[in-house]
Input
Amino acid sequence: MQFRKNAVGQTIRTLRRSKGISQDVLSGFAGIARTHLSMIENGKKQANFETIWKIAYALDMRPNELVKKMEEFMEKEL
Output
């Protein structure tokens, strides 16, 4: 499977919306700037592991669960 840069941001956006929370709320829970989250969701910036970790816990999931969701997204888009 080939890594798709936009899978990270699109997965985070989908999960955030499914929980009914705004970028402001998620970025606040994660301790990152809203603009940073926006750029990740739009594929303009790549998230490092620390940021993935923070976002995962802000979404009430473990980092490995978030990565699994990203993998599922990429498989679905093949």
Summary: The chain has a mean pLDDT of 93. Residues 5-76 form a domain with the 434 Repressor (Amino-terminal Domain) fold (CATH 1.10.260.40). The longest helix spans residues 5-18. The chain is about 70% helix and 0% strand.
